[in-house]
Known about the structure:
By secondary structure, the chain is α+β, with helices and mostly antiparallel strands. The chain is built from eleven helices and twelve strands. The model is unreliable at 11-22 (pLDDT under 50). Residues 1-21 form the signal peptide.
Amino acid sequence: xxxxxxxxxxxxxxxxxxxxxxxxxxxxxxxxxxxxxxxxxxxxxxxxxxxxxxxxxxxxxxxxxxxxxxxxxxxxxxxxxxxxxxxxxxxxxxxxxxxxxxxxxxxxxxxxxxxxxxxxxxxxxxxxxxxxxxxxxxxxxxxxxxxxxxxxxxxxxxxxxxxxxxxxxxxxxxxxxxxxxxxxxxxxxxxxxxxxxxxxxxxxxxxxxxxxxxxxxxxxxxxxxxxxxxxxxxxxxxxxxxxxxxxxxxxxxxxxxxxxxxxxxxxxxxxxxxxxxxxxxxxxxxxxxxxxxxxxxxxxxxx
Length: 303
């Protein structure tokens, strides 16, 4: 891997025109070729350049161009990212940033899918198989103390499998639905995308303070504080436990909340899409599942 990265560094950094700082930091070809050499090495498909992601990255680096100190977290719904800073070296270019992220491969353990001995998430985002689009930008700090570079990726990487795997959500939903005579659900990518946008938008503290107004979409939300091992299956079981509060005779909740359960087993719902996120302050997990057609229609029974 190091041999590959050294060759990558020499072949692309050597052709960068060091005379023009903006050009060497904002030339798509340099970012794209270096990304795709590393990705090809591990068998993931090549990325394509995306102008909207580039624009987003440029707005970000420009906002921090005074001293290149990224003091505020970047909350970007549905966008993965890598950031590189280099102090006291105004010859730092996009190729250097990619090499820097790629060298984190040494800390990635594929067997356990975890970082061992150091940070590795910049590397895993760089080579993330499901990411298909790339947009990057860089800036020289106003006080000439260094360089700030950001690359954006869509779809985002570094999604925990336990929070993103359709199989886990579907299996638990359908076992419970079959128990009550409701038909099995099928996975829907648009509902998943909608759920992911919601949890990402509320990922700072997972409080989900803003209401989600979604015409024609039913939903369930689960939060768990102080336990980052909480997974999609736990969320479904949590909703299913509300069965104890549902009175089928009166079609109402008795003794507690039951609407998460009734949506889970709603007979007319046929499609499912879910997503989860770890809160940025690592205080817990936020999970949302979307359903179409929606359940909990007044005057109707779940099954």
